[in-house]
Structure formats: C-alpha cells, structure tokens
Amino acid sequence: MAIVSVNPATGKTLETYDEMTPVQAAATVVQAHEAWLEWRAVPFSMRAQLMKRAAEILRERKDELARLMAAEMGKPLKQGVAEAEKCAWVCDYYADNAEAQLAPEVVNTDASRSYVAFQPIGVVLAVMPWNFPLWQVYRFAAPALMAGNVGVLKHASNVPGCALAIEEIFTQAGFPVGTFRTLLIGNKQVGAVIGHPLLRAVTLTGSTPAGKAVASQAGAVLKKTVLELGGSDPYIVLEDADLQQATQTCVDSRLINCGQSCIAAKRFIVVDSILAEFTERFVALMKAKKVGDPLADGTDVGPMARTDLRDELHKQVVASAERGATLLLGGEMPTGAGAYYPPTVLANVKPGMPAYDEEMFGPVAAIIHAQDEDDAVRIANDTMFGLGSAVFTRDVARGERVALRLAAGSAFVNIAVASDPRLPFGGINQSGYGRELGSFGIKEFVNIKTVYIKNPHGSDAGSAAE
Asked: What is the total count of domains within the chain?
C-alpha cells in the first residue's frame, strides 16, 4: 500500500510514500517504549532545553513549513506561518511551566506525609487530522513529552510530509531517538497499534465517527483516551453588539482554514432587531474574501483539503436549500482543477436542515433567526455538539452570563473562539471528552498517584514531595 500526498489546489500528486507494514509499525512502538524507559528519568530542565530548541526550529523553518502545509492541504501561506509560530508558543509554554504543573501536591491527612505525584505512563498514540497538520500534533506532543511520555503519530494520510517534518524537528532539536516517531500507516492499522501491549493511551482529534471508532478500540483493551471531535459552534449576536466588530469576527472565524476547523464559527444566531443589518454586512464581507492559490500572496481562502470533502459539503448546501434555506451567496460547484468551494451563506436555516443539524466543515455559514436572548441560547444549545461558542454584546457582564449558559467546552465573549496553550481545550457531548492544553491537558496522560507515608516511630522523616 502507498500513502499519496496530493495538492488540493491542482489535483496533482506531490509525493508517494510506502506504508509501514504491521511489523514495522509494531517495531516502532517497541522503539518508543525503549526510549521512554530512559526519557522518563530525564530531568525537567533537560526536557525543557530540548523543547525550547524545537520552538526555535519551528520559528526558523516557519516559511518552509507554511509552504508544505499549503501544498499538502491548501492552507494559505499567512495562516501556515501563524500556525508554525503557535506551535513554537506551545513548546515554549510547556518548557516553562511543565515542572511546576506536575510538581507533587501535598495533601494533609492522618499520614506522616501524603501527597499526589504525577508520573509519565509511557507510549501515547496520537491520531491526528489534516486541517491543522502541525498545531494539532504539537499541542499534544509538547505536554506529553514534557511530562516524560513518548509519542507515536498516526497522521492523516493526505499530510505525510507534515508528519515526517514534525518528527524531523524533534530529532533536529536533540530529542533521543524514539521519543517521537511518525507511523506512516493507514486507518486499518490503527486498531493493531492501539492493541499493542506497550502502548498506554490514545489521543484523537477528528470527526465524531472517527472518535467513536477509536474509543471503541481503545476501550476493548482498556487504554485511556482523550477525544477532541467535531463541532457546530454557535455565535450569538445580541441587539446591543458592536455590529461592525461582531460581523468581521464572525466572517473571519467562519473562513479560517477555508472553514475547515472544529472551532470555526458555523451557526450565526442573530436576534430579531439586528438580523437584516447583520445579514447585509455579513454577506458583503464574505463576498469580499479572495479565493485562490494558497501559495499566492493575498489569498484569504484556499481550496478545501480534498475533492470528496468539497463534494460532501456541497450536498449539505443543496439539501439545506431544498428544505427551505435561502441561498444568499455562493453555493455553486466550481469548475476546473482543485478542491475549491466559494464562501457561501445560507439564511432562514431551521431544524431538519444539514446546515442546522450537522457540522458544515467548509466555507459555509448558517444564519439563524432568534427572537431574543433566551431564544438564542436555546438555539445555540440545540445541538449534539458542544465544543466552542461565542456571544457578542457591548454589555460585558451580560455576555458573561450568556457564556455560562452555553453548553460547550469553551465560551468566548466579543472574540472568536481559539485555543490557547494556557487554557484547557476540549468539548462535551458529541464533541468528545478530556482536555488538551493548560495544566489540565498535561495531566491527562500521567499516573495521578497517591503516596501515603506513615512513620512507625511517629516522627517526621521527610518526603520526596518536598
């Protein structure tokens, strides 16, 4: 079997890679485990030094990496540069904070000394998507490696060049051989890797069906999982919002990465009194975005990652229109090479339409009318997902109250939803479970161990927790 990298802007093959055999994949897991036996004892200071070097390399190679992402999955260059820089940020963040985050926590009990220790568990498999081919991996790898674990990566099959570049950067930074390895395998081999007796846990970012499949495989062999899955993020726009700022933020969030982001704004829930003005502004801004070659300067929206994904999105648009949604912009299948799809706006979106009920993973916006604040919150929560959410209002206290009512893993006020290394990130319901990033994320893949010490002579003999 071969893994093929295809340029979504041209449809041309970039490179073909040999898929690892099951024996090679298993040997890679063994190599990672052997590396972990030594890596777990490496002091935080040394881990941090290597992670800082990885951050430096990411910044040094950001233009090259942006071109690679543009070629393999269609991300505009300026967005690719920003992604590489964000990866460097998460490396720096955990290099600076991991030791404190994983410091033993003393708990006063009847013991002479009792505390909670956080110890690495071993080899962690990351099953990652193509939409943020560097960031999705680094936000797992930086905390996992700083915690003393090692990682093996099964990346999306359309970004093998990115997967190999990530491994190369860790190697270039000086991480021991086997500490981070890329598995060039297809989806059919994932179950065998999960079942490997030396593998300890799995993290997946991807679609809800993919998450269910991996969770089922991991559950059968009792392996810990963290899942960050799909989303249909609601953005509520209230009558007292700064419409210029709100509309611009909504459009930018909807079109980032050609709309192919789990936390991109997808459902725009607008109250009665400002619906007409918001819609007019929104359509105008969407129409002004430049669609084109992701390698060209000035491109706002590149192609979608694959033609099959573009075709599926178009079916959702057509079905929504057939069920009563009003097509205000776009919605026509382009001719010619590449997986391009135009920025598209659907209004009068209601339950029973794909644009309301499903995740629209592409540059398609759904405008939904709400009577008032309570109705807007009801609509926002009327979804099987629960990843991100946002609300726009000039009354910050009101915005905070609304944010706390939204059923999602994160809620933002007057700004687009985004991940931040300093804050936990993840979802609820069909958007997954567990958390990445922040102090919560680094503790997902450690043994949270209780240590209880009773001195038989009744005196305090000290503790490793000090």
From this structure: 2
Q: Is residue 145 part of a domain?
A: yes
| Residue 372 belongs to some domain of the structure | yes
Domain span at residue 173? 2-229+427-451
| Side-chain-facing half-sphere of 415: CA atoms under 13 Å | 8
CB atoms within 10 A of CB 432: 28
Q: Is residue 65 part of a domain?
A: yes
Residue type, 92: D
The residue among 316, 128, 264, 125 whose CA lies nearest residue 207 is 128
Distance CA 229, CA 313 (A): 18
pLDDT at res. 1? 76
Give yes or no for residue 466 having a pLDDT over 60: no
Longest dimension (CA), the chain: 83
DSSP-derived 3-state class of residue 108: coil
**For residues 52 and 46, what is the distance between their CA atoms, to the nearest angstrom?**
10
* Statement: residue 354 has pLDDT above 50: yes
> At a CB cut-off of 8 Å and minimum separation 6, what does 210 contact?
127, 204, 229
Q: Residue 456 in contact with residue 111, Cβ under 8 Å?
A: no
Considering the domain architecture, whether residues 165 and 290 belong to the same structural domain is answered as: no
150-154 β-sheet, strand order: 180-182, 150-154, 123-127, 199-205, 224-228, 432-433
Coil, helix or strand for 2? strand
Catalytic sites, residue numbers: 228, 262
Residue 466 inside a domain? The answer is: no
Q: Are residues 237 and 225 in the same domain?
A: no
Grade residue 464 by pLDDT with cuts at 50, 70 and 90.
Answer: very low
